[in-house]
Amino acid sequence: MTRPEIEVRGLHKSFGDNEVLRGIDLEIGQGEVVCVIGPSGSGKSTLLRCVNLLEEPTEGQVFVGGTEVTDPDVDIDAVRRRIGMVFQQFNLFPHLDVTGNLTLPQRRVLGRDRATAARIAAENLARVGLAEKADAYPASLSGGQQQRVAIARALAMGPEVMLFDEPTSALDPELVGDVLAVMRRLAREGMTMMVVTHEMTFAREVADRVVFMDGGVVVEDGSPERVIGDPQHERTRHFLSRLL
Ligand code: ADP
Ligand code: MG
């Protein structure tokens, strides 16, 4: 039995006296795709941010690839290098072209030389179907293309796991499909992924498991058929009925 790639144990997070995560336990195996769904304010983003230490948990443990990232002695930068994160807002560097966006973090954070960084940038742009946009500036790209560049930028760092926080929520509807297609491909390639999304078709078709959160706890955790198709809890049914 191999260890889970991501393991969350007894995770609590408070902001002041607002307890946002109230004891989360979660295991994600290598190559598994887990979609996290739930109402706004239920703690989905905070959970992702605790996994890559953008937020410091109040209590509990998080392990990534067997390393306890919540260990106070851990090298946070080394941990973050192993975890790619994609946000709703693409956060590209506007003054750099696409290649520059992909090479800068590789050079700064990983110390790769220019030629190596450029080669890996090109490989990952091809992976998201944007090889021809290498010299374009972000402002000249559609939102969907910008998000695919952001995914390629994260992939160029060679992460072991990818976290996505509502990656298609800021996109015009006609641009959502291209981004989801890239994520499907990543899933097929065996990437371990945690995806906060409201895209139920994606969750049904791509996720190995769906986690429904409400009020800072995991209410249901199971196959998409179970959690979306046959929810056991009233709160899940209520949430899903409002999406349809
Ligand atoms: P979701 O992603 O499910 O919509 P969030 O994790 O963003 O939920 O937020 C859950 C709760 O935590 C909200 O009530 C939000 O106001 C609060 N929260 C999130 N981040 C912070 C922060 N940095 N400081 C204070 N409160 C926060
Ligand atoms: Mg959120």
TrEMBL record:
Alphabetical list of Pfam families matching this protein: ABC_tran
Q: What is its EC number?
A: 7.4.2.1
Localized where?
Cell membrane
Q: Which UniProt keywords apply?
A: Amino-acid transport, ATP-binding, Cell membrane, Membrane, Nucleotide-binding, Transport
Q: Where are the transmembrane segments?
A: none
- Topology versus the membrane, per the UniProt entry? Peripheral membrane protein
Just give the chief location class. membrane
* Coiled-coil annotated spans: none
Family designation: Belongs to the ABC transporter superfamily.
Query: PANTHER family of this UniProt entry?
Result: AMINO ACID IMPORT ATP-BINDING PROTEIN, GLUTAMATE_ASPARTATE IMPORT ATP-BINDING PROTEIN GLTL
Q: What is this protein called?
A: ABC-type polar-amino-acid transporter
Q: Which organism is it from?
A: Streptomyces dangxiongensis
